[in-house]
Amino acid sequence: MTDLATRTLGRTGVEVTTLGFGAMELRGAPRGREISDGDLGKLLNTVLDSGITFVDTSIDYGASEERIGKHISHRRNEYFLASKCGCLVGWEPSATEDRGGPHVYDRANITAGVEQSLRRLNTDHLDLLQIHMTPSKKVLEENDTIQVMKDLQKEGKIRFLGMSGTLPNITDHIAMGVFDTFQIPYSCSQREHEDAISQASAAGAGIIIRGGAARGAPSTDNERAHSRNPELKTVFEQAGLDDLLNGDTAMEFVMRFTATHPGMTTNIVGTMNPDHLKANIAAMAKGPLPADVYEEAKRRLAAAGSAPQA
Ligand SMILES: NC(=O)c1ccc[n+]([C@@H]2O[C@H](COP(=O)([O-])OP(=O)(O)OC[C@H]3O[C@@H](n4cnc5c(N)ncnc54)[C@H](OP(=O)(O)O)[C@@H]3O)[C@@H](O)[C@H]2O)c1
User: Fold this and answer.
1) Geometric angle at alpha carbon 261, from 255 and 263, rounded to 5°
2) Is the pTM of this model over 0.85?
3) Ligand 1, atom 45: nearest CA belongs to which residue?
4) Which of 30, 120, 224, 237 has the most crowded Cβ, counting Cβ within 10 A?
């Protein structure tokens, strides 16, 4: 166990650790990296042994749901389990295209998706069902998606309703007042949603941050992540933050910056590397940045092009 802090996930009232586990990296072939079954079991159990209590996955993440079901469903009461809906049931990723599948938000597909997730995750309920890919309010209304989710909630198959949302649609989603949580991309290198996070949090929602370690961008030991996200590393370097690190590694600083946003509840960082998991726990255990460092970092980041979007 570690000293990871917890925060309340908005109006759900549930306490979760400020570091969560993003399980997209566990999707396997053809779109992800491979890992042996033994190493995977060790990694997922280490996540829980470390005290992390929030796990995020999706129908869209290949083998991720089944792997969670296989390796940690016997410890189901130790973690808050979040998956997604709208992903087309039966869609299979192609070996050549690095893109997700289509999304359909009607009753048949949402219900079939939840039933499939429950089977794959080897559980009788999801703690959180998040609408994937930020569809417009109009699409949600045309498909009666919220009512479908509420019906699943009444049946006990899901506990809370969430949105994986981005600008511009997230503004309408917040105003709808039906979502208990929002999953939002954010880091010091990608600050577009800084104000949306504040607005969603002020409306009472729990905030799940993705991209909050900038996909490993500023670290020195992750060439794969850098090649996927060169711009994240560039922004960090251009901001010239070295004198603000005060003993932190660049990755620690990035993760602490994310945790300093007062709206953040949990930062769901994905990793397949046990050493990175340890490092991420240590970074989050350091807590938020001092206020003066945070303000100065925001100023320099804005000058380097990373600023909130109205
Ligand atoms: N639309 C959506 O709803 C949506 C979209 C994307 C992601 N998500 C969710 O959000 C989670 C997080 O996604 P993400 O985009 O932030 O990234 P991610 O896909 O989880 O990947 C994180 C990357 O950072 C690296 N990394 C992690 N810790 C590190 C460390 N200490 N040092 C160096 N590199 C490190 C990992 O590599 P190693 O394995 O080598 O550590 C990996 O390449 C996903 O797992 C998924 O659950 C949701």
Assistant:
1) 125
2) yes
3) 22
4) 120
Taking the CA of residue 164 as reference, the ligand 1 atom at the shortest distance is 3
User: What's the 268 CA to ligand 1 centre distance in angstroms?
Assistant: 8
Residues 39-55: tens digit of each pLDDT: 999 999 999 999 999 99
Q: DSSP class of residue 306?
A: -
Calculate helix-pair angle for 37-49, 274-285, nearest 10 degrees: 10
CA quadruple 120, 122, 125, 127: dihedral, nearest 10: -80
pLDDT mean across residues, the chain: 94
Contact residues of ligand 1, CB 6 A cut-off = 22-25, 56, 132, 164, 183, 210-211, 213, 215-216, 219, 221-222, 224-225, 251, 268-273, 276, 279-280
How is the chain split into domains, by residue range?
6-303
Question: pLDDT tens across 241-287, in order?
Answer: 999 999 999 999 999 999 999 999 999 999 999 999 999 999 999 99
Closest to 211 measured CA to CA, from 22, 16, 14, 18: 22
- The residue contributing the CA closest to ligand 1 atom 43 is 225
Q: Kindly report the protein residue whose alpha carbon is nearest to atom 14 of ligand 1.
A: 211
Residue 213, C-beta contacts closer than 8 angstroms, at least 6 positions apart: 187, 251, 254, 255, 258, 267, 269, 280
**Atom of ligand 1 lying closest to residue 211 CA:** 16
CATH of domain 6-303: 3.20.20.100
